[in-house]
Amino acid sequence: MENQRLLIWATFGLMLWLSYEAWMQDYGPQPQAPISSETINAPTETPLTDDLPPLPAGSGDAATDGPSLMEPQAVAPSPATTAASVHVTTDVLDLTISLRGATITEAHLKKYPIAKDQPNKVIALLSTENGDTGALQTGLRAADGAPEANHLSTFSSSRDNYELSGDVLEVPFTWTDESGLVVEKRFRFARGSYRIDVVQTVRNGTATVWRGASYAQLQRRSKPVDRSMFDVDSYSFDGPIIYDGEKSTKLQRDDLLSDGAYSVTASDGWVAAIEHHFLSAIIPPKADTQRYNIAIINDVVVASTIGPAQRIAPGAEMEYPTTLFVGPKLQRQLDQISPKLKLTVDYGWLTLISGPLFWLLSKVHTLVQNWGLAIILVTVLIKLAFYKLTEASGRSMAKMRKIQPRMKALQERYKDDRQGLSQAMMDLYKREKVNPAAGCLPILIQMPFFLAFYWVLLESVEMRQAPFALWITDLSSRDPYFILPIIMGVAMLFQQRLNPAPADPIQARVMQIMPVVFTGFFAFFPAGLVLYWVTNTLLSIAQQWRINKVVEQEDKKRSTGKKVKKNKDSD
């Protein structure tokens, strides 16, 4: 019995360790090569941007000799141009595009209210109000002092309002220089999509070759993390993330503030700012090698990407495409843009398991059209998949429960002889064919799957404000009446009664208060997570009850067989 208690506590400690490792992997300091200010400010000779001047700051001053980070003051238009903007609405987005740089300065998600009981107050991913800084800027950098349409240039638009009426909406902006250079910037929106395709077309009407590159910049507020056990959302990563074509890296606020800017040159990459269920992202063309710079300036994340310089002959034109994304982390849409963009869904180190689990969950949801019911059915499927493994653990627990009175008798007999007690217990295990460690491997194998499913339910935006049934109207928030946590606590208490009680009185008292502790802990968890745990606990109870009955029947048959054999021998 002592060995089994040690096994249980060792397993519980391992679960805590795995959870800690997952937390450190996602939110702890991540190694990265620090980049000094000398490196950032040094003149660049890379063919990526050739001798292009620095990206302009809010004041228009050039601070360095290479492609540099822009000052966050460039986010907000000056008072003189505040009203010079275009309003764009689709079925899912409500945007404001300033004529200063044709910059997206506001983005509201029409189908995602902040709170379910306030449907008219929706999520604003990009905004310049109340210090909630956010903007998506695009522009061009020209070499040799040639004219350019950067994010500080004033564009013109034939209309001040656009609304999606068909399947596709295009919103054009134009910039013209007196030299004859014309730039048209077109935003393309599609019904039901949070993807924004931007194409900058440069028409060289000058008498000389124009040489330049396109860039894009994301600015997003950065704030210190204030975590709370009463708010599970606060443990989700909030900040910049970059994919360099090989791996994704979440950049911690403290690291960027202490080590300085993060810079990398890569192709087939992207950069984004993520929060719990939403993201703003820049996805350059795959074929182009881009230089990425990410820093925090005045509590604003500034992430820029600039491509290779191109030459445009007099009378010729060239297009510079890029893709933006402003919206929820809908994995189907992210996958259509770039398969690796799904890494913004923060499953941490369990992504290899969480991805297939989410795929299974979404397939089940397609059939039942209810995320709560889908959670229950997937939990059942997981339980069935591991049934044979957990059966070994359950049989061991049933046999331990059966011999518990004999174990207590041995403890009384050898209470002053620890060595004798250990030998007697080993003899009892051997005689009854009980292995206290039989359930170790099944538990260890299941643990990553259960933790992965936990993160799927926590991080998938599809579960946000999704109703289940009766009083559960939002699977992403806590049970308003704490009914599910109470059911879970009662189920855990009943589950304990099916298992052998610890022989040690202190362990017994600890196990008795565990349901109460877990009930209080889960009371503030999203209802979807509690529903999963309740379902898993009830299935475990049903399985253990059945195993106990089977073991009892086997013991009765064995006892009956022994009696029959004994009677025959006596005859």
UniProtKB/TrEMBL annotation:
Residues 43-52 have a biased composition (Low complexity). The gene is yidC. Belongs to the OXA1/ALB3/YidC family. Type 1 subfamily. One of its GO terms (biological process) is protein transport. The keyword Nucleus does not apply. This is Membrane protein insertase YidC. GO terms for molecular function: membrane insertase activity. Its main location: membrane. The keyword Cell membrane applies. PANTHER family: CYTOCHROME C OXIDASE ASSEMBLY PROTEIN COX18, MITOCHONDRIAL, OXA1. It is a multi-pass membrane protein. InterPro entries: Membr_insert_YidC, Membr_insert_YidC_N, YidC/ALB3/OXA1/COX18, YidC/Oxa/ALB_C, YidC_ALB_C, YidC_periplasmic_sf. Residues 371-549 form the Membrane insertase YidC/Oxa/ALB C-terminal domain. Residues 34-82 are annotated as: Disordered. Residues 86-360 form the Membrane insertase YidC N-terminal domain. Required for the insertion and/or proper folding and/or complex formation of integral membrane proteins into the membrane. Involved in integration of membrane proteins that insert both dependently and independently of the Sec translocase complex, as well as at least some lipoproteins. Aids folding of multispanning membrane proteins. Keywords: Cell membrane, Chaperone, Membrane, Protein transport, Transmembrane, Transmembrane helix, Transport. The chain crosses the membrane at residues 371-390, 434-457, 510-534. Gene3D superfamilies: 2.70.98.90. It is found in: Cell inner membrane; Cell membrane. Interacts with the Sec translocase complex via SecD. Specifically interacts with transmembrane segments of nascent integral membrane proteins during membrane integration. The lineage of its organism: Bacteria, Pseudomonadati, Pseudomonadota, Gammaproteobacteria, Woeseiales. GO terms for cellular component: plasma membrane.
